[in-house]
Amino acid sequence: MLGALYALVTVLAWGTWLAPSQKIAFRNQQIKTFYVASANLALASVVASIQGFNGLTWSVFWLPFIGGLVWSVSGFFAFTATHKLGMARAYGIWAPVNVIISVLWGVLLFGEMTSLTTQSLVILAIAFIVSLTGIVMIIIAKGFKDTATPASIFWIGVISAVIAGIFWGSYFIPIKLSAASLWIANLPLSVGIFTGSSILAILSKQPISLNKKSDTFRVMLTGLLWGIGNIGMLLLVDEIGAARGFTISQLGVVVNGLLGIFILKDPQPQSRAAWLTLVGCLFATIGGILLGSVK
User: Fold this and answer.
1) pLDDT tens digits, residue range 74-127?
2) What is the percent of the chain where pLDDT is above 90?
3) Mean pLDDT value across the chain
4) Which of 223, 243, 68, 98 is nearest to 163 (CA)?
5) Maximum Cα–Cα distance for the chain, whole Å?
6) Do the beta carbons of residue 228 and residue 13 sit within 8 Å?
7) In 3-state terms, what secondary structure has residue 57?
8) How far apart are CA 38 and CA 44, in angstroms?
9) Which contacts (CB < 8 Å, 24+ apart) does range 45-52 have?
């Protein structure tokens, strides 16, 4: 039941976190990363003050901090990808990469799935295939490449999304290696994210001020939603392992696809793209359920 709760929180939060700030005109993506990191640090500080700081030593601090630096690089490339490709296409590229990388790390570094029975391994393989099929269907529903996007911009977006997927599939590793409570590790992780994002913002040599107060609220909401999803993901990975946990967390693309159809009307309901998206959502959900059922 705890695993199901963590999965639900993660999928809902990570399925919606990009939407509030997607239409804001930022000077560059480093500034956007900085604001998201600031909101996440504020959330982590509040959670830490409630949970207490017992056990937070320097030896515990530095590994999650490094994980945060890795995330800040991921965030920059992810925002670059969404800026070049749009939210749906960028998400649809980095989500499968996330899954593949996290599965590899789970098996190679943490010895996950080595003690599973043959039947469980078969179910697990089917679950991964079904999940990835659903994710890919969602992303190709509107066509992979927008013909109005110049090829150079398109490929910058694709490469950025792939890099984001690789780093986002890896930033949890220092946290697991620290063997610290996730409630304790979340604060140094958030400090690392903020530090890396601040360095990127400073190097961009651009003012960090936004045009409107409502823009500040919207981008901070993006940061809070990501932070909530991150806490849920870390707890989920701790509960069921990196390979399955990270795969399930990427099912936020299902929420993203459903919001696109029924709220944003993109793609239009009843269109071929909408039906393909819905079938992809069904596949991804079934795959997620299968992943969660493997013992």
Assistant:
1) 989 998 988 888 776 787 788 778 878 888 888 888 887 777 788 888 888 898
2) 35
3) 87
4) 98
5) 57
6) yes
7) coil
8) 10
9) 45/187, 45/190, 47/183, 47/186, 47/187, 47/231, 48/183, 48/184, 48/186, 48/187, 51/183, 51/184
